[in-house]
Amino acid sequence: MRRLIAPIGTALLTATLLLATATVPASADGGAGGRDLGTGCVTVIDPPPTTTFGAFGISDGPGGVWFSHGTTVDRVTGQHIVEYPVPDTATARIGTLAGRPGGPVWFADQGNNRIGAIDIRGVVRTYDIPHQSGTVAIAQGIVIGPGRDVWFTDQVGGTIDRLDTRTASFDIHPVPTPNSGPQGMTRGADGALWFVERLADKVGRLDRDGTFTEWPLRSGAFPNRITVGPDRAIWFTELNAGLLGRIDRTGQLTEYPITGGPVGITTGPGPYLYVSLYTDRALAQVDTSGAVTARWDLPGAAGPTQAATIDNAIWVTDFTSDLVYRVRPHCQAPTQ
Predict the structure, then answer these.
(1) Contacts for 202 with CB less than 8 Å, ≥ 6 apart
(2) pTM as predicted
(3) How far, in Å, CA of 41 to CA of 120, rounded?
(4) What is the dihedral of CA 59, 95, 162, 121, to 10 degrees?
(5) What pLDDT shows up at residue 102?
């Protein structure tokens, strides 16, 4: 391993060239065949065991589907998993991911107060998140762009942060509600950043001019993840309240009941949202009227968390059982 470390601005930029990565077979139903991983409607991928943390973040990226796995960022390609360790693995804890097909994949290293990027060659760049002495910075939702900017929520700092990758500098935007615990974040159709405030039971919006707006939810709602729906409205999950929330372009908040412990949420394929159900150990298909139109049981699941739409399939991680799932919504009629 060759490591280059150089201070840039107020952050530390670490570029690591991983000369060797581990490749292990992925357990999947069906036959081999590139990213298709067989023909089953629900494919179960069992990554190599980890002694730290299970599969969590999930994202598209160069050359496959990527997920976070304790101290590594892993890529699913065909019926194999390629593991990429990050710097300072003894203390690393990789959380949320965000990527694009051409890469790189951005990740939150919650154990080292960092955000970082990794490309298909295994080159890692990390940036130390500014935080007060004696505290930690825990990045959660990540949004890439526009341009070379990367935005993320800092759960502990209660801020929305912007990383300028050209200068390795940060802009910090404190959320108006103290100790709000911002989590998932997405870029809305209006160009603003929308996020959930888990500890404050609110949804927030950061406009392009730096103005914040907040929507209060019922006490104990425990919102988690957020996305732009097929109707271009903002949709989000409320785990403890058992609700899906929707905010339209006029700012009107509507909530729909959903059983099973909604956590992760993603849009498409088709005119649907897909929601990972933590306590029901399932994936739900939801239309824009808030109705559940289909459900898939996830074999071996203990608590599905994150969800992402990749290659016209829904990918789900289960942190507790340390499994990754691929659900193909149109391959056959699902259970309801």
Answers:
(1) 177, 180, 196, 214, 215, 216, 217, 223
(2) 0.88
(3) 28
(4) -60
(5) 84
